[in-house]
Amino acid sequence: MPHDVDIHVGKRLRLRRTILGISQETIGNAIGVTFQQVQKYERGVNRMGSSRLYDFSKILTVPVSYFFEGLDGSQNASGVSEEAQSFEHDKMSSRETLEMMRAYYRITDPLVRKRVGDLIKSLADDKPVA
Predict the structure, then answer these.
(1) Domain spanning 4-93, CATH architecture
(2) What span, in angstroms and rounded, lies between the C-alpha atoms of 93 and 12?
């Protein structure tokens, strides 16, 4: 049975990999494992050693601490409860959200990207949350 920490770390791995648009096969090849092994890491079935976690952090351009964000205590630094974090994480993991984030970051002009972000925020302010 996977440990909760391994599941959390795996979800964070999958989230970052998907946001960057990197396939399991590509990231597996980069660190010398099969895509099936990456799948097991992402599901928390197989536990990662510290050197493997370090390898993933370098490929995904995040600090090792990224994989543990949102794990400690019932509230994070901003006072958000674990339940709210879990709900937010579920929304962040959806295919629609990840596709939107990838598209947003492909906009190379910073001014255009800011305007798109402002547009989304203004539209969201006009609509009640469902």
Answers:
(1) Orthogonal Bundle (1.10)
(2) 9
